[in-house]
Amino acid sequence: MVSQRAADVTPFIAMDVLERANELDDVIHLEVGEPDFAPPDRVIETAVDSLRAGHTTYTAARGKPELRRAIAAHYDREYGVDIDPDRVVVTPGTSPGLFLAMAALVDPGDEVVLTDPHYACYPNFVRVVDGEVRTVTLRASEGFRPRVDDFAAAVGPDTSALLCNSPANPTGAVMDGETLAGLAEVAADADATPVVDEVYHGLSYDAAEHTMLEYTDDAFVLNGFSKRFAMTGWRLGWVIVPPDYVDAVNRLAQNVLICAPNFVQDAGVAALETPADRLDEIRETYRERRDLLVDAVEGWGLDLGYTPQGAYYLLADVSDLPGDALDVADLFLEAGVAVTPGVDFGDAASDYLRFSYATDADAIETAIERIDALLATVER
Q: What domains does the chain contain, in order, with CATH numbers?
């Protein structure tokens, strides 16, 4: 019999949409966050050289020392934060880092406070360790940025963690330093721990990026190579662990992860040495795509109400169109455009569709034309 824990895990609807879209001909994919850029050349060359050098054995569970040092140097260079490399745990993707954080922090019945909307998989990470989810509602009129006071009102004696994402999936919101500092204070007062997913760092357009580590050492900070470096299939991430949790997280990693691939870790070092101008160029390309899609959504008469500041997503309110958001997503798919229904991302997003602009401008233009033609036939 399937365990109740497994039964409670909900599907990731974006992946269901992708599967359906792949069965159709000539579909524009705006449903998944899959960068269309190739990794930097040096990353690929380093991986090949590493394979040829025979770097295919196990590494330490927490990762190769040279990669952990490179990650620590990244925080010093980007944010002026001094991180002990011993606090860095390298993981096969960022999601395993979140699992390690939840497993280290959450006992059965403990509460984890997260935003609504949120990344679709967050509640399932809480459920799989038998935790309870509490949410704070975000508002489009405020750019989907969290209020510190809302988090303060949501925490209680059973709260063990505050889970945040900036730049955020699915909204593209970016938390400023004042908000991060406030959340760190709320967590400290509640004897809870911030867990901050920063995997979209490096992809902010209209806001300065701050890491939670600027404001507290008592936080789990997640990041990785999938988004900024277009290395989704390489499965390489990391988590910065509070000093008191280093040994526990290392034991968990030894047992459930073993290690990230050896040669991919070498490629990670090369990625962190990528010249800034190359990354800036990619970020500006995403900004142009964002502006193109924002203008289109507003032209369709849909309620956007904000401009995403980072990542490569936006949420559009489709409650004025016939049916619910699932119906509208089906209608768009019939027109050859795949998007993700907002129900994937929480109750507050149930009237929304998420559009990803992690695809080239020509494809986005084609998607816009198809939706233009479709909405011209829809009575509102």
A: 4-38+277-376 (3.90.1150.10), 56-273 (3.40.640.10)
